[in-house]
Amino acid sequence: MMLREILLALVICTGACAQVPGTEPVIETTPPVLPACQGALTQGGLVICEGTPGETFTVAGVKQVADSEGSAQFGISSNAPAVIGWTASDGSYGDLTIAERHDEFRTIKGFDCDKVDARSAEQKAHAARSWQIKQDAFATFHPGPGALNGFIKPADAPASSPFGPTRKYIGVSKVTGKPCESTSVHQGYDMAAPIGTPVVAPADGTIILADPDLYYEGGAIFLDHGHGLTSVFMHLSEVDVKPGDVVKRGDLIAKTGNSGRTTGPHLHWAVKWRNAQSDARSGDFYIDPALLLDLPASD
Ligand SMILES: [Zn+2]
Q1: If you measure from the C-alpha of residue 11 to the centroid of ligand 1, how many angstroms do you get, rounded to a whole number?
Q2: pLDDT tens per residue across span 163-176
């Protein structure tokens, strides 16, 4: 062997690499092993595990069965710890590092107390009826890709208010003269859109609620993407689908509006993750739609 060939073999064969003189060096390449569970690893994000159909994954103590594509998906709550563990029924396991959120806290004074609360018997009946319609919808589950193919923005409009901030509203009722105070976390992703802006499905799914007049939400649509992931659209001026409709990403489903209890025309888009393996809805929570928009979207 010439010196040049020996040097070349040394360059290629780093690490344990046996070479029989006079033969081509055998280079063993091991493809990088991707962890089975990845996703939008931030508080309010989503873990996506990929394995074989029927395989069971457990993430942070919550169990899900992989669908026919081998996918299992898990919402990450807004107060998830810095590290969460995952295990699979094939014996593999790992840890996921979860980025912390830093949502702001805002106090809003001069709040119109009479605008939100249901006071009259008619308003209370409307609010109660709306609540039941929502509960019934959230109890239904449909198959679908979840976030497997990514999400697109549901309207061609700029984001105006993010998911996450806690808002404390302080005001005085013009009707009763009494002060009022309420604190809530903004659970959606607001987009500033003039009334009549088209709303499209951000991902494939099945319509599970389509109502032109819920008390707080106004015109509202719930779209079940599968894996318990459900988009909620509020304050719509036009609802162009009905429960049971199956829609594809990009399909027109509604027009934006200013209906329900709003402070101006906008689209409120929220995404709730529901644990499909549990009959109790108390453990469900909203996640950050902006993090879903960051996932790679397939064509
Ligand atoms: Zn909102």
Answers
A1: 59
A2: 999 999 888 888 88
Q: How many CB atoms lie within 10 A of CB 54?
A: 11
Residue 32: band (very low, low, confident or very high) from pLDDT cuts 50, 70, 90? low
Distance of CA 265 to the CA centre of its chain: 23
216-259: per-residue pLDDT in tens? Answer: 999 999 999 999 999 999 999 999 999 999 999 999 999 999 99
Rounded to the nearest angstrom, the distance between the alpha carbon of 275 and the centre of ligand 1 is 23
**Gap from CA of 137 to ligand 1 centroid (Å):** 20
What amino acid occupies position 182? S
- Give 286: exposed, middle or buried? Use CB within 10 Å, 0-12, 13-18, 19+: buried
| Phi, psi (degrees; rounded to nearest 5) at 205 | 170, -175
46: β partners:
40, 75
Q: What is the structure's pLDDT at 3?
A: 44
For 71-123, the pLDDT digits (tens) are: 999 999 999 999 999 999 999 999 999 999 999 998 888 877 777 677 789 99
* 265 CA to centre of ligand 1 in angstroms: 11
Ligand 1 center to 234 CA (angstroms): 8
Contact 266, 193 (CB under 8 A): yes
CA of 256 to the centre of ligand 1 (A): 13
Residue 223: strand, helix, or coil:
strand
CA of 75 to the centre of ligand 1 (A): 20
Separation of 2 CA from ligand 1 center, angstroms?
A: 73
Q: Provide the pairing of β-strand 252-256 with 205-214.
A: unpaired
